[in-house]
Amino acid sequence: MNYIISDDGTVTIGQFDPEANQENSSLAPIVIEAESDDTLVQDGYVPLVSQIGTKKDTPLIEVPQNISVVTERQLDDRAPKTLNEALAYTPGIVTSAFGFDTRYDSFTIRGFDGVYNGVFRDGLRQFSGSSAVYRAEPYGVEGVEILKGPSSTLYGASSSGGFANIVTKRPTKERLREVEFIAGNNKRFQGNFDFSDAIDDEETIKYRLTGVVRDSETDLPGYNDNRTYIAPVIEWKPTEDTKLTVLTEYMDSQTGGTAFFYNDANGITDLYSGHEDWNDFDHEQYRLGYEFEHRFNDTFTFRQNTRYANVDINLEYAYRQGAGGSIQNAGLAVEEQETFVIDNHLITSVDTGPVKHTLVTGFDYGTNEYEQRQGFGAIGGVITMNPALDVDQEQDQIGIYMHDSLAWRKWRLNAGVRYDFLDAETKNNTGTIKQDEEEMSWQLGLSYVTDFGLVPFANYSTSFTPNVGSLVGGAPAAPTVGEQMEAGVKYEFLNDNAVIQASVFQIDQEDGVVFDSSSGLNVQVQQDMRSRGFELEAVATLTEGLSLNAAYAYTDVEIKDGPSGTVGKQVSGIPLHTFSSYVDYEFQNSTLRGLGISGGVRYFGESEGNDQNTINNDERYFFDAALRYDLGEISNKLEGAEFKINANNLFDKDGQICASGSCYKDEGRTVQASLRYRF
Prior knowledge:
A hairpin with a 5-residue loop joins strand 31 (about 480-490) and strand 32 (about 500-515). The chain has one domain (about 1-679): Beta Barrel (Maltoporin, Chain A), CATH 2.40.170.20. The chain is built from 4 helices and 43 strands. It starts with a strand and ends with a strand. The strands form 8 sheets. The protein has a 22-stranded antiparallel barrel. The protein is mostly beta strands. It is found in: Cell outer membrane.
């Protein structure tokens, strides 16, 4: 299976020599109607074409970098409740280091933290502070792209391990009307709706409106998981060469204030830290932005993407101290974060002799205002705010970049360079600290597209990432820098919808911001880390009704410089070995037509429980399963209706996991049934 992207944006899939991609020729192929500015072209479990690796429509098989994608079909089959669950079957990503905790989308990519600098939305960075962290509603997502390794050249500030790009649902080509009701254990009740259609007869204006209302308890007493979410999207396309998409969202969530259990010298206990009268995490966020594109001619295309966003949190939590956790105290965190990001770039397509260039030149700007207030007291008493923990921070970052994708015969070369300027000011009780930084990042990647589906590749890339918030004592963290060397191979089955990729890598990071508990307090510090490993992934959707993805990762993360007793040790919470596989089968021509069954397994090997490596985590494994049935097979009157049951952690494994010296419990078995109707 290979691809041609023609001038009119049609993606052609067929079997042909890869050199045909340069000549724009076609063979008797299968044609998928897809506009060139579609964010993500996918077929079942298999991603085909995306802009994530180059900021232009590119077959993912050709990009000289490891990219994983959680497609819309995977999301639909697994029905994840959080972004963590959506990423659970992705190689190199660990979502379980902190057990059950729905307050944040907390994960690592290739051993590096992803929650603060590793989440993008529609190609733009999401700034995140200590607890003022933007969250994702999986029902409002049509795919998650995971770009592995430092990627500052095109995207600026991001995690050294890479980032997950959340792709918002856009207006569909055909009219969509969907309503869904979900009920599950822990008194979980949820309603979803998703509508998309053209507003005018010429179909130049389209909309999509997605919403969620949820009321739910959890395994933990007094820990709720409630949400109201609505995301209107308007698309205006007056001509084939011009398009404006306005993307908006409002989300109000309430969860428990803590998912933490009291830890003693022997590890975790069964004593929950939360208190029923002081256990609320109120989280409100909204965003407003747009994506504009205009194609001047065959040579020049201009794009401008922008977003304003705000997140406001009020976190009430309890914690235990003293012998046996007998003393229960209260904490309060109030934070607000206001951000604006904009990315402008010009895509230039030119030829220099036999070499085809697609040059992306642009500049982006991001500004962030972050406020944090914290206080402590007794349960039922007065909370005293501590001025020593106040943080007021403003950051402005400007990036200028140039990236060239060159194609010559079967060779593909990506080369890019970027220069960043940071101007930041942090105010605390001791005064004002200013930061004025400059840094250059660059990338070089090469791949060779054979005519039998095999694509070897190699790359080198660097990153530069200013950090939001402050370290212990109130001083701002230094920017984090990283560099990666990676080599691998991708294989695309020419006659089947299936792809396999494998890669080896090493990432060196300086001044990463991590949590350390060696002093008895869980505080943010900076340390240098080295991660090296191997990743293997296979995805397929076959005509016989079988879809699958399988992943294995070996991740070895060593602390090169950090707090006393940690140098030379393994980073906590990161297993050396992880494996996952999810298989879905939909019965075809038989009496069971309309029935779909699926199941998956997630395995996490042994890991360290603290950065001093004095606590060890046992291996863990979880099984998931799902069953669905198209009720239209029973009667034509039920056409468009589907019943589905999803179960996570089917065998109710509820062990413990420790990271950064603190221990947590895994979420027990969850079961939810849904009835969906499309009309």
